[in-house]
Amino acid sequence: MSTGHKIKVVCRVRPFLKTEKPDTSVEVEANNVLRVSNPRDHTKDVKFNFDSCYGPEIDQATIYRNDVRPLVETMFSGMSATIFCYGVTGAGKTHTIQGSDTEPGIIPRALEHIFMHQQRDPYDYDIRIRYYEIYKEAVFDLLKPHDPTTSGLPIREDAQRKIFVAGLSEKRVASYEQFDAIYQKASGNRRTASTKLNNHSSRSHAILTVQVQWRDDTGAGTTWCGRLHLIDLAGSEDNRRTENGKDRMAESSAINRSLFVLGQVVEALNTGSSRIPYRDSKMTRILQDSLGGESLGMMIVNVAPGERFLQDTNNTLNFATKSRLVVNKPVAHEVVEQRWSAADRLQHHRGALAGRQPKSTLVVASGPGAKRRRSDEVDPDSDASPGCRAMLTSSGGLPRRPVAVARPGRHSDSSCKPGAVQRAVEQKTSSASNEIMERVMRIEQQLSGSSRLDSSVVIDMFTPATKLKTSRGWLKHARELEQGGDLEKALAHYEEALKYAPELNKLEAHIEKLRVRLRRQKRRSSIASHGAANVRVADQLPGRKPDDDDDCGPLWLIDGLAESPGAEKAKRRAAHPAKPAPKPLALPSTQPAAASKAAPSKSVVAAAPKRVKLAGARKASGVTEGSVHDRRVSFGSSILNPFVVGGSDFDSDLQDRLDRKAVVSAARTKRLEAKSSVAARLNRVLAVPRTPGDRDYVPPSSDQESDSGVVPRRRVPGALGVRGLVEQRRQQAAGDTRAQKQSREGVDPVADLGQFSDICQASALQMINSADVKKIMKLQGIGKRRAEQIQASVKEEGPILHVCDLQTRLHFKGKLILAILSTFA
Ligand SMILES: Nc1ncnc2c1ncn2[C@@H]1O[C@H](COP(=O)(O)OP(=O)(O)OP(=O)(O)O)[C@@H](O)[C@H]1O
């Protein structure tokens, strides 16, 4: 069992610099007591207790010998140790950890110590280093020259929830001299700058990791791995005093923020909080194992003497006092020898399935606390050895070394020996490994079959934790997209999230909702862009129930061309019409009786509305025809709303339905009556022409006067619609129709328009008269030139009242007219 180990806190007060005026505000009273003047009341003192306190006179060697060296020694027991320097800017952190040529700090001394150890010991030590910095919340490799195009390396978590920096390079060092050459060069890559408080201020947190790995041939032949992390944190800065510029301010705020998170992590650990905010900064994420984890930890608190730093000193010491309470649970790390390729594992799996033992001895890392280093932890370019990529286990759930915090012994205990324990471990992990092997087999099968992997197989390769994390990532983006109104992309992101977390039922339901919303949105935008001309009104279909999201009642619209408004369909229709178009195109108005008697086309029936919304009875513009658009019947419709419903059909149908409702509840009656009056109003507006007394009366211009000379005809582009139809019928009834007139002039009329209804024509004409080039162009068969022709004609000669006008006025060919009308059929 591992024992709890508190973080060791050592305090070091630097000497006054030549530029500073000495005072007695900070003094070391005893080996472990620091006295500091109270920043609020200088006559009073505050005392702080630490594991050790060093005054300005204490040299680097003493500190190393007393406090650092024992910790470095623990590496040789397969432990991880972290030493980090903390303090305000200019307090002496870099001096302590790095030192100078004349006064080498912890790093050179520790490395010297490690190489000496290597020479003394019989073991063949494999020593490697990694060196990186966290600059403005991004991780950069210091062993490589700085590449300004990179945005930093990612911090990841492996299957055993161990933190590592992916893609970091690693260098093997055989001697101190070799290390020194690499380290000096790499230190040059670290970002430093001159500030008002320190001429050579570190602008980043720098982390040097030394890894020592060796094989203990005297015992069970176990390979051990010890690590030492030496961290020079950037100092907190009071920007009122540093007078930093813009760049320095950005660095400073990143530094202060990460140090603030460090404080929060310590606070959370001390209060036993369920959430430790390691993830809130890169620095705390990397220090995770050293703060409440499985590393041994030591914090060197650097203090600048003098009254002007008193407030900072107090803050630093208060934080250090809290940090003393943080408890780590250090464990030793054992490296398992075999490095298994996917093929090895597969081979082993097959052997295990067949009841055979694999050729090589297997120790599988598993159980709580077991560690496995990811292969991508090491940069492929680096000189990492296969041994480094071996499976690394801690003594969590597996045989582990006894953990003695002071000077732990270097031999594995009996539990490390192969035999019964190993078999037990194998048994314990066999089910997990079988599952992994099955996955490997599935992947191999896929690979042998095709060059691409199924996404489901790839997802299957992830650990549950990774799946959850990935799913959360997708979800986050999806929510942002949804909030931004991009439903289509949001849906795709939600679907991705569901792939990784298929168990999320709520997510599934949400996706379904979103799909419905999207469908609805598409339908609406289709109607809006192509006009309701693409929509046919029909009676309620048998078996169809109103959608919950329908805007209003049973003016049932069937999306005809709305969903496929492309030219293809119209072209097909034009190419193979059900009936060949007559040439020249016949005029319908010579058959007034037939036209007026003709029942509305079966496919174009306005059903009685139960819930009809009326938008603005009469607009000031004077446009007052009824129309159907987006499932609404409206008065005073705009030119964007070109589909027109026959008012009389509409009204009579409503009346029929009202008659059939013999027994209805009072409320229902009231509603229906209201609708009835609306319908009556609609009928009035549609059927009764405006007279000069009406508010929306538009006086006709001389050239627009009706042929009868009685009914004032409105000449508002796009306003023909039903009103035009009604008017036409009235004219027909009066026996003086335009068509008859044309007939007298020698144009051959025909009985009706064949397959096209009045409404279809009205819609087409209304669209054309709207004089909106874009909309007109949407009509199949009309190009830009034709559209402009129409526009000019409508402008000069007024609205086109009948399809025959297209032929006579614009010289449109019958085929073209047919194509236009087919859009509305
Ligand atoms: N113990 C010491 N003995 C002599 N000089 C020291 C000592 N500690 C610090 N100094 C000097 O104080 C100055 C500031 O020290 P240093 O650069 O190490 O501060 P720092 O805490 O790393 O600052 P920053 O956070 O800005 O990087 C340096 O000139 C350094 O040589």
Automatic annotation (TrEMBL):
Keyword presence, ATP-binding: yes
Ranges of Low complexity composition bias in the record: 586-602
List of residues binding ATP: 87-94
TPR repeats: 471-504
One CC-aspect GO term: microtubule associated complex
CDD domains: KISc
UniProt-annotated stretches for the region Disordered: 350-431, 523-549, 566-602, 690-714
Family: Belongs to the TRAFAC class myosin-kinesin ATPase superfamily. Kinesin family.
UniProt name for this protein: Kinesin-like protein
Organism: Coemansia spiralis
